[in-house]
Amino acid sequence: MTTVWTLAAVWFGLALFASFCSIYLRVSTALAEIIVGTGAGNLSLLLGANVLGADEPWIKFLAGAGAIMLTFLAGAELDPAVFRQRWREATAVGIASFLLPFLGCAAAAYWMLGWGVAASWLAGIAMSTTSVAVVYAVMLEYGFNKTAYGKTILAACFITDLVDEI
Questions:
Q1: How crowded is the C-beta side of 75, counted as CA atoms within 13 Å?
Q2: How many angstroms from the chain centroid is the CA of residue 109?
Q3: Interaxial angle between packed helices 117-128 and 87-107, expressed in degrees from 0 to 180 and rounded to the nearest 10
Q4: How many CB atoms lie within 10 A of CB 46?
Q5: 74 and 133 Cβ atoms separated by less than 8 Å
């Protein structure tokens, strides 16, 4: 039982550290959380794969539930009237935001890094997906969710995710 509380304390500590970093550096909280999480993940690879307990079922559940909740909140924020007016822009940006990084990263992995075809396609997919949850969190933080521009970008993120699922 002590391990569960220790892991919870570490995860909450990382979140608190990311929050302090975002305040100190004056960047988005979501961006700071991504950077701190990436750093912690890389550190856990050096120290041992189970240091952060990423394979624990309750941590996987909380991570999945959090991602679903943020995506749901972002979807609730999507304004159908704005999407009807600007569906061309949202679709064009959404498709381009998937295709250009996908093709570029896949090509770089294949020709520059010498990876195989399957690994190159996987690298392209991994680097081209846009997280609606992250975009939504940044939009909320800066108030872009109230503007037509922000709502169009949010719709484009949903298009990107749809293209990624296809």
A1: 10
A2: 21
A3: 140
A4: 7
A5: yes
* CA pair distance 26, 4, nearest whole angstrom: 32
Query: 0.70 cut: is pTM over it?
Result: no
What single string gives the DSSP state of each residue in the chain? -HHHHHHHHHHHHHHHHHHHHHHHHT--HHHHHHHHHHHHHHHHHHH-TTSS-TT-HHHHHHHHHHHHHHHHHHHHH--HHHHHHSHHHHHHHHHHHHHHHHHHHHHIIIIIS---HHHHHHHHHHHH---HHHHHHHHHHHTGGGSHHHHHHHHHHHHHHHHHH-
Structure tokens at 99: 């295709």
**Considering only CA atoms, which of 93, 7, 107 is closest in space to residue 57?**
7
**Minimum mean pLDDT range among 4-13, 15-24, 40-49:** 40-49
Residues contacting residue 83 through CB under 8 Å, at least 6 positions apart: 90, 151, 152, 155
Q: Tell me the CA end-to-end span of the chain in Å, nearest whole number.
A: 42
What pLDDT is attached to residue 132? 66
